[in-house]
């Protein structure tokens, strides 16, 4: 199906931006066991007082993470380019279905939209409050893994939101409820309320990636990623975001969460 000119231009711009800003981080986050993908990441170390993750070190780590995120293209190699290419192609493909999906009569249900919006917001609240509770319990019981989990989850969320708002400032995409769900990009009146990407998705997946990495049992991973998937799906059903918005938000959130976990993990 041929895309309108505006959407073809949008896809081209996103492809260019993705090629510049995101792929190296995907390669770093997804290449488990490949030390070349994480040249700056230390090997997991046994706990000592000197390498404990603390709140006081959070600003410095976030600044270093942002530097790594925005310079990630320098780490692209032929051996780790498959993930980035697949994400870019998937995003371009899903964009061709955005209008059709959001115009479906099945989603034209204000009651359903409201309920699923509430559910997604509640789930995101859990992904923010959960790590805070884990951190507090870790402090109370002197559990280094729990305190590390809480701190790193907060850092991953902060890193992800910083990236999200840069993308929003660039994309300036209309929400599905505006202009017959045409999803136009680069609209001057949109500002940081851009639909692309989804903040809910990026927060949920970045937090879930930390939880699933620190407590990597199968049930924890199923629960964390299952609830994050629920956030993404509900944002579309609520008609708050297009499918491509949540796809990119979910992928970028997961990538950043995985990177933060692998880069800063200390306890064993």
Question: What would your notes on this structure say?
Answer:
The protein is 65% helix and 0% strand. With 268 residues, the protein is mostly helical. It has one domain (5-264): Vanadium-containing Chloroperoxidase, domain 1, CATH 1.20.144.
The average pLDDT is 85
Order of helices and strands: HHHHHHHHHH
Number of domain modules: 1
Q: Give the beta-strand count.
A: 0
Put simply, the count of helices is 10
Query: Which assembly state applies to the chains in this document?
Result: single chain
Structural class: mainly alpha
**Which band does the percent of strand residues land in?**
under 5%
Provide the CATH topology.
Vanadium-containing Chloroperoxidase, domain 1
Any guess at the CATH architecture? Up-down Bundle
What's the level 1 CATH class? Answer: Mainly Alpha
Poorly predicted runs: 32-50
What is the CA-atom radius of gyration, in angstroms?
19 Å
Largest sheet, in brief, is: none
| Residue share in helix | 55-70%
Shape: globular
Distance between the termini: 51 Å
Fold topology:
Blueprint: H1 5-21, H2 23-30, H3 58-70, H4 82-95, H5 98-102, H6 110-141, H7 144-171, H8 199-214, H9 218-237, H10 243-264
Helix pairs in contact: 1-4, 2-4, 2-10, 3-7, 4-10, 6-7, 6-8, 6-9, 7-8, 7-10, 8-9, 8-10, 9-10
Outline of this structure?
The protein has 268 residues and is mostly helical.
Keywords:
single chain, mainly alpha, Vanadium-containing Chloroperoxidase, domain 1, globular
